[in-house]
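Folded chain entry
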Amino acid sequence: MLRKLQQFLYFLIFILFIRTQQITTQECKGEEPSEFQTRFVSVICKKGDKSLPDRTGAVLKKNFILTAFDGPTEGIRCQIVKDDDNVPTGKYTRDIDEIFTFEDDFESDNWRVPQMQILKPKESGKSSNSPLNPMKLRTKYFLPKGQMCEVHTYDDGGKLIEIDVTVQSQEDCDDYYKGLNPINICIKLPDGCPCNKPQPGAGLECDDLLVGVINDDTKCVENGKPRLAADVNEVRRWIDRLIIQDNILTIKYLDAERDDGMYQCGASNQLKTTY
């Protein structure tokens, strides 16, 4: 009798496991290949020897990728990956050199702070035709309730897809997320589409503009909550400041290289004159 009970429990656990897998891999209504294939990348990360869940990154510049983490990023190593037929491996890859976090108050509930990180890849050291193109950001402050938008995310097969979603009001999410930060946008996925379908960092796009970054909360499927996205327009100053600082550093680096080249050229000419 006890053995039969154990077998039944094992079978029940197996069925639950299969159903969970189906929930996370099932196609959503209206799901189709993303029309912005060059504007998003896959982000692969590890912390120590532990692999973290894959996430999506939106391209701000060729050396700035916007994504989301729920927690400190110290000790996390990441790499961006993109299909590219122009390289022998078929993959465009870059290791991440730095991770910048908008707000690092990870002690509170993850909906009380916007999840927003910028990844800066290491320089390749050689010129190449990058398969990446920047995504334009929204500049308007008003996002009407009920607006139809798309979420761009990678599926379990590594394909970049887009899913139709609906923007909801803050009031619609108050019952689910007490003290919801106003920087977070509340979105509703199609009926039957689990809220953990979009990867962390997936891009919320409305009218061809990047509006938000999907937060790192794949457990939302356990409690039937709507998904949240950090509003990029609310953090434009932070994004612009990082980009401006990077541009200044790049200009200084190029100026230093040019000055060094001019000095070497002058020294070479002087030697020729002497001889």
Q: What stands out?
A: Confidence is low (pLDDT under 50) at residues 7-24, 262-275. Residues 57 and 64 are 9 Å apart (CA to CA).
